[in-house]
Amino acid sequence: MPTMSPLITATAAELAGRIADGDVSAREVTQAHLDRIAEVDGALHAFLHVDTDGALAAADAVDADRSAGRDLGPLAGVPLALKDVLTMRDVPTTCGSRILEGWLPPYDSTTVERLRAAGVVILGKTNCDEFAMGSSTENSAYGPTSNPWALDRVPGGSGGGSAAAVASYEAPLAIGTDTGGSIRQPASVTGTVGVKPTYGGTSRYGLVALASSLDQVGPCARNVLDAALLHAVIGGHDPRDATSIDAPVPAVVEAARSGDVSGLKVGVVRELDGEGYQPGVIERFREGVQLLAAAGAEVVEVSCPHFRYALPAYYLILPSECSSNLARFDAMRYGLRVGDDGSHSAEEVMAATREAGFGAEVKRRVIIGAYALSAGYYDAYYGSAQKVRTLIVRDFEAAFGQADVLVSPSTPTTAFKLGEKVDDPLAMYANDLCTIPSNLAGNASASFPVGLADTDGATGPLPVGLQVMAPAMADDRLYRVGAALERALTQQWGGPLLGQAPSLSARTGGPAGATGPEKGNQRA
Amino acid sequence: MPALSPDEVAHLAHLVRIDLTDEELDHLAPQVQVILDSVASVREVAADDIPPTSHPLPLTNVMRPDVVTPGLTAAAALRGAPAVEEQRFRVPRILGEEA
């Protein structure tokens, strides 16, 4: 049976502690993860670019700081995988699109700046749907990513690369971005933790914009505390983002350490259930809610009658904003240029470049956005969608009057097969049914693993996520609930859920061995 | 809603400056129609007395002090450009044939 290095199965918190103690060097930790990537990423394709030299140099800098007796932050030396929609100076940033192939950003996003300042080691850039448009990572121009639990299944999207990297021990931490569920849905289908902070809680500076009123950067991890530690590093006010909230980061780390939900009112959203939900998903969700009740939470049912209009409103608001945001890809200042042969005009070159550089889903959404915003249809489509957004906000206000947090399944089904929904936009969009309302209202939400569900005869059971939603700037409640679930469930399972994942090494031509669960999920 | 024809999709594609092939137009038009039909339900609840929400935070006119801060150098800004001439972005001619 193959045994993974304890350096790659350890938690981020443990790694940082061992590096600070001098028990292991940041370079050794980084090298172990680079080796893991070399071993399994051929089969997974979670990374679009591995920054070997930059990562080792960052690790060496942490080791030098330690030798010099300088204070190390709580995540110093810990490796991280960065979603390829955030700029990182001199490291390729493609957004999963041909139109940005080979582009080297001249500046760091605020997220990267804060990660660097904290001594976090950025291993490379992870695959995603083109410009984060998708729920399966199949819309990447560079090919799909596989789900570590079943290589013929999607890892969710758009941040499938980040979720797969974390789930497969290529990195203990990753950064995602969530516009309609792109952190939470991949977390759900890969058995990992993903958090969408309150809108304005993390900076969007240097995040290539999809829909500016919805996009939010957030942490991906294998456990609740690691996600909170990362949240604390990247969160907080940034004057370079005009929508950044000028207030301290909620006490997420303390909440993750506490996990105390006694007296907390947990509202089950009546409308996020029923037809279209896989029975196994509903079963795991209900068991999760029972565990919260057993831990002292008070469970109530709440109704959010307008949530059924969230999906249609989102698929008007998002395309409208993205058709405007993606106008910047005009073949003039960066990225691809096609047909510049001296005879074609700038407009013709622009149109030829966008035809060649954008994939099918980007074209669909940009065209729908142009339609929804066009004179004569604006009131009926975009205007109505904005009113629905108000109704969603009111539904949340009413529900948070009755409960401290709301819960639902994170996604209606477990991971589906690669190729299954790729040319059926409506079926693909339905994956984000539960996650979209929180983006429209701008509040905080997260997905936590709550077990496995039978999917079909061909595959073993696959992960299920439970979504928690909290009012704006009450992000700490997400971690409180997540930690309570994690505590109860790991006790029940005898270890983390990922310990039940089939061995990746055995399926990817790595070190030979049985196909049983990999060793090494025990705490290092 | 009247059905969206490939010609109308072609018009939208022109507005957003994407040269779609005839094949793409034929494939996209019905998909765009299906999506628009499915999102039209927002009109069921969008009553006149409901104010629109464009943004989740009630922020207006966020200003910074009017102080010069360092920006990109010309070389850094031009480095990713598809074509550069005399320390500027070189662009194709900006007037069409009819001009």
Which key terms come to mind for this protein?
heterodimer; A: 524 residues; alpha/beta; 11-stranded mixed β-sheet; 18 helices; 39% helix; 12% strand; globular; B: 99 residues; mainly alpha; two-stranded antiparallel ribbon; 3 helices; 33% helix
Largest interface: A-B, 71 and 56 residues
Gross geometry of chain B: flat
Residues in helix, % of chain A: 25-40%
> Major sheet of chain A: order of its strands?
1-3-2-4-6-5-10-11-9-7-8
Query: Which structural class fits the helix and strand makeup of chain A?
Result: alpha/beta
Low-confidence spans of chain A: pLDDT under 50, at least 5 residues? Answer: 510-524
**Biggest sheet architecture of chain B:** 2 strands, antiparallel
Q: SSE order of chain B, as H and E?
A: HHHEE
**How much of the sequence of chain A is in beta strands?**
5-15%
Please give the count of helices of chain B.
3
Mean pLDDT of chain A: 94
Radius of gyration of chain A: 22 Å
Structural class designation of chain B? mainly alpha
Helix content percent band of chain B = 25-40%
Number of strands of chain B: 2
Q: Radius of gyration of chain B over alpha carbons? A: 22 Å
- Kindly state the number of beta strands of chain A: 11
Low-confidence stretches of chain B: none
